[in-house]
Amino acid sequence: MNRDRLIQQLAGGLIVSCQAGRGHALRDSATIARMARAAADGGARAIRCGGVGGLDDVAAVREAVALPVIGLTKQDRDGVFITPTLDDAVAVARRGAEIVALDGTSRPRPDGLDLAAVIKAVHDEGALVMADVATLPDGELAAAAGADLVASTLSGYTEDTAGRTGPGPDLELVAGLRNALRDQPIVAEGRYHSPESVAEALRLGATAVVVGTAITDPTWITRSFARAAGS
Ligand SMILES: CC(=O)N[C@H](C=O)[C@@H](O)[C@H](O)[C@H](O)COP(=O)(O)O
User: Fold this and answer.
1) Which end of the chain, C or N, has fewer beta carbons within 10 A?
2) Domain limits at 143?
3) pTM as predicted
4) Is the CB of 210 under 6 A from ligand 1?
5) Number of domains in the chain
6) What angle do CA 44, 188, 27 make, to 5 degrees?
7) Would you give per-residue pLDDT tens digits along the chain (231 residues)?
8) What CATH number does the domain containing 102 carry?
9) Ligand 1 atom with minimal separation from the 154 CA
């Protein structure tokens, strides 16, 4: 699929992140693939997956749904942890992801390469790049390096931005990215816990919105209801 057609397919829509961390009751690639199918049935335009489940989750979801797959790997390490190296990014593309999500911050990467080199390698595999950033300057640099989509994923999860918005999403970053990067596809991601917050991000100019936990983590969902029940 070409770049414009793929981005058009996401535009104005919901992307569902299907991930389960180590030790989670749903940590199993076949289970993740079933969640992806359920999300597709509910109207997701694309599935974001991989993370701790890595390449096996990406391949299982690729098999299970006809939607575009945004793949990533995650490493337990400080600093850059989402698809941290060029080799990781190429591997994700080779397991069938049309879009590779990777760290797009300006922090040093573990393989010492710069973002533009990693983006070029993914493009050479025929996939697009979603650059997960934490700040507006990160987003500007990622766009200049050739990222196809810039996502607000890492706001609140870097040393500089920890605790920036509290429990809610960073809508200010989404608005700032849209304002600074007029023609760039912008993805709102991170702590979108209600349909209203999704609508607000789109109103502020996000091209699409990723929701993970609030849809695909029944442990988190149960906890919020259990709290309301006083247990
Ligand atoms: C910071 C980080 O590691 N984010 C990860 C990125 O893939 C996932 O753990 C999140 O679930 C995803 O970004 C969706 O966000 P939320 O689950 O808040 O809707």
Assistant:
1) C
2) 3-229
3) 0.98
4) yes
5) 1
6) 55
7) 699 999 999 999 999 999 999 999 999 999 999 999 999 999 999 999 998 888 999 999 999 999 999 999 999 999 999 999 999 999 999 999 999 999 999 999 999 999 999 999 999 999 999 999 999 999 999 999 999 999 999 999 999 999 888 899 999 999 999 999 999 999 999 999 999 999 999 999 999 999 999 999 999 999 999 999 997
8) 3.20.20.70
9) 1
